[in-house]
Design a protein that fits this description.
3-stranded antiparallel sheet, single chain, 11 helices, flat, alpha+beta
């Protein structure tokens, strides 16, 4: 995450040469596939025929079946997906690692951090001392601390308003860094305020501007769709349009729960839009759910012609 001219910019990790979706240049086929598994495929048995997946990906701006197959192969090599053959057709499903990845993502997007919103007025501080020869480990630790909800107060000092003991224990076990970590719990005694600490650690101004952009982009569509669904005589979106719209809504919103520290209300600015954006996202998501699922089910359950020369 970075800022440019005061606006929040979201960068994408390396994608091994993946071509972006034509619907949104920032969306890579791998991310589209994982969202399909998390939001649609997993609740319906967790397995999908490659031909159905190719058709869905075409609607989402990836017209090349070969690009889809290549992405499936790379994602499988990384341990997130697995495949099996039924006759000449290939079916893909999540591995346990992929399940865990999507479980964490769904929790964060739809439920938020379970520790959030109730604050006891104390800060949790984490200090690390990792030598330069272990710099990759240090970089990984910093990344994971940000994911959990910590912010960087100083070069090797991170703070959070909540007790993340469970998450930290899992992280320390995974990275084997217990010998390099010190944890503290403290109250801030000044000379500034807790809000001053927040301003030093998190760029809430840019994040709030990004929330404003999200609401400005999606609210007119929501109001139009809401009016169409309420009045049967009003021409509304097709099932296919609802599927694509709901999918893109999730993709554009899902970055926020991973960069928003979900601070207590007492630490947020008065004009904070994060809560409004979360409520809006859930309302629009729910509005589109029934028609979007109806379209997906039609594609997901449709059997290909017997004479189709499709090897999956």
């Amino acid at each position: 995450m970075a800022t440019q001219n005061g606006k929040l910019m979201f960068s994408n990790p390396s994608t091994d040469g993946e071509q972006p979706s034509s619907l949104s240049p920032s969306i890579r086929p791998k991310n589209l596939i994982l969202t399909l598994f998390g939001d649609y495929i997993r609740p319906r048995g967790g397995e999908i025929w490659t031909g159905s997946l190719i058709r869905l990906m075409k609607l989402l701006g990836v017209p090349s079946g070969q690009a889809v197959r290549s992405t499936l192969s790379r994602t499988s090599q990384r341990g997130w997906l697995q495949s099996r053959k039924v006759g000449r057709r290939s079916f893909y499903s999540l591995t346990p690692r992929g399940q865990h990845l999507l479980d964490e993502g769904a929790q964060r997007i739809f439920l938020g951090r379970p520790e959030a919103h109730t604050w006891d007025g104390r800060w949790r501080l984490l200090s690390y001392h990792i030598p330069d020869e272990l710099s990759p480990l240090r970089a990984r630790l910093r990344q994971e601390l940000g994911w959990i909800g910590f912010g960087r107060l100083d070069s090797s000092l991170y703070v959070a308003p909540y007790d993340y003991t469970h998450e930290l224990n899992d992280l320390f076990e995974t990275l084997d860094v217990r010998d390099h970590i010190d944890l503290f719990t403290a109250e801030y005694r000044g000379p500034g305020t807790d809000q001053d600490i927040v301003r030093r650690v998190w760029d809430l101004e840019s994040l709030n501007a990004a929330y404003a952009d999200f609401l400005a982009a999606w609210r007119p569509r929501f109001e139009a769709d809401q009016a169409a669904f309420a009045d049967p005589s009003h021409p509304g979106p097709t099932l296919e349009e609802c599927f694509v719209r709901r999918f893109m809504l999730v993709h554009e919103y899902r970055v926020f729960p991973f960069i928003d520290p979900d601070l207590p209300v007492a630490l947020l600015p008065a004009d904070w839009l994060g809560t409004e954006a979360r409520v809006f996202f859930q309302a629009y998501y729910d509005l589109l759910t029934e028609p979007a699922l109806a379209f997906f089910d039609a594609v997901f359950t449709a059997a290909p012609p017997e004479d189709e020369d499709e090897d999956g």
